[in-house]
Amino acid sequence: MELFKWIGLALAFVLWSFTVASSWAEDAPDSSQIFVRTIRAQGTGCQPGSVSTAISPDAKIFSLLFDRYEIRAGGSDPKVDKKTCEIDVEFSVPSGWSFTLSSADYRGFADVQAGATAFHEVLYTFDKFQNFAGTGVAPGFSSSSSKEFVPRPPVGRTGSFSFSAREFRGPLSQEYSIHNELPVQKLAWSPCDSSATKTLRISTALLARVLNAKSSARAMLSLDSVDGALNQSFGFQWRRCSVSAPAPGPVPPAAPAQAALVYRFFNGRDNLLTTDQNEGNRLGYRNQGTMFQVFTSAISSNSVPLYRCIDSSVNGRFLSRSADCEGSRFDGVLGYISSAPSSGLVPIARYTNISSRADRLTIPAPVPGDRGRYRYEGVQGYTLPPTAPR
Fold first, then answer.
1. Omega before 171 cis (within 30°)?
2. Longest Cα pair distance anywhere in the chain, in angstroms?
3. What pairs with residue 8 in β-bridges?
4. Are residues 50 and 192 in the same domain?
5. Does residue 310 lie within any of the structural domains?
């Protein structure tokens, strides 16, 4: 009997905080005027009775412990599972100051075998837009029965966000520690208004899936705790409200270090799109030049993965936004693109050769419509143009 394959992932999420002077201001407010007032949690991963919260006597440390923030996929369970939890932390903040989360730390254990993957996603915001926890829909999926990736919640007209995502792909079995430094252009600042309280919303999502629909692999993912301390030497940044902030709006395109060129290789019937030139050379495909760039990580709430897939029936490669590769074989993540238009980004669309289903190609598409013998299938997203001529 074929043994079940398991993934185990335990996440401990630590928010550090407040006393460092930010790049926006040379000082910080009196720490005695800063404290946690309340903590509220809601969502499918933190239902009533399954999460406990605590605030220290000096109101400088807060923590949450989860009893049933766990998802399972595979075996007798669905091939895909996810849960979410929205955590609202209300702070008392001195008048005339704004703050933001500039770094976050995650610690835990990952045990992921080949054939399965797990995601941990976090959205930080001071907006009150509808988030995924209210509906039980995780940010990467459209519904409990769907494997389609969809855009994350939109940014409010007067708000902003910070977003981070991490994929754990097998095979691996190890304790891990992740430190995320959020670039200035991605920071979500609390509003400068007359209110003495500011609420930071931390929206978490756990996602796990078996990569092959016919596989008997199983996956389990759990989040154990969230902790925050207001007396550490890094984590939050401060600025005086008299200092103008970057205007809310779309996140600008990433710096070159955050993007990778996508090369097209062709063997006469099949297209290979890859960020590794050596891959095409190893397969004996001909290099057709650069097509576009992809982001190497999620850079905003609109970021979505672009998957590499192989249609075994025709031995043809293609790119898809669908996590299950539209029923074909999963071949990795090419990178991240934006689901929404933004300055500096170009649309990319998928085309299929009308005489050969193996010949499917994703390329920049400034104008929709068929191209010769290639049938236009629609825009897949928006990303950076190539830096070299195609």
1. yes
2. 71
3. 111
4. yes
5. yes
**Kindly report the CA angle at 118 between 145 and 334, in degrees rounded to 5?**
95
Please indicate, yes or no, if residue 248 is contained in any of the structural domains: no
Last residue of a domain, one of 240, 269, 291: 240
Tokens, residue 265:
């290789």
Q: pLDDT tens digits, residue range 339-358?
A: 999 888 999 999 988 887 77
Q: What stretch of H or E contains 283?
A: helix 277-283
Residue 305's DSSP bridge partners are 336
How many CB atoms are located within 10 Å of the residue 364 CB?
15
% of the chain exceeding 70 in pLDDT:
61
What pTM was computed for the model? 0.50
Same domain? 15 vs 106? yes
Count the domains in the chain.
2
Cβ contact 226:63 at 8 Å: yes
Is residue 297 a part of any domain in this protein?
yes
Boundary of a domain, candidates 206, 240, 274: 240
**Residue 91 vs residues 88, 104, 179, 200, 378: alpha-carbon distances, Å:** 10, 18, 23, 8, 45
